[in-house]
Amino acid sequence: MKIQVLGTGCAKCKQLTANAEKAVAALGLAACVEKVEDLREIMKLGVMTTPALAVDGVVRSSGKVLSPEAIGELLRR
Question: Which of 17, 51, 52, 75 is disulfide-compatible with 7, CB 3.0–4.6 A?
Fold first, then answer.
């Protein structure tokens, strides 16, 4: 599983990255959390508001910082 945090490096993006890492650890998943800061890559995924979270190339959330619990719910689906 590939989890991407899309954002330019703001505090909210860093918090979403930390929350995603906590969710992955809590669930014991074999997943990598990747930070994407390149605007062209972010735009390719159709994201207009950051931070955003994509799972296996599909944007699941944008414009908010999800809690580790909320990310866990997304990953269980």
Answer: 51
Whether cis (ω within 30° of 0) applies to the bond prior to 51 is yes
User: What does DSSP assign to residue 56?
Assistant: T
Q: How far apart (Å, rounded) are the C-alpha atoms in residues 33 and 19?
A: 10
| 38 contact partners, CB below 8 Å, separation of at least 6 | none
Q: DSSP alpha helices (H): ranges in 1-53? A: 11-27, 39-44
Please state the pTM of the whole predicted model.
0.92
Residue with tokens 């959390």: 33
Q: Which amino acid is at 43?
A: M
Positions annotated as catalytic residues are 10, 13
Tens digit of each residue's pLDDT (9 = 90 or more) over 20-76: 999 999 999 999 999 999 999 999 999 999 999 999 999 999 999 999 999 999 998
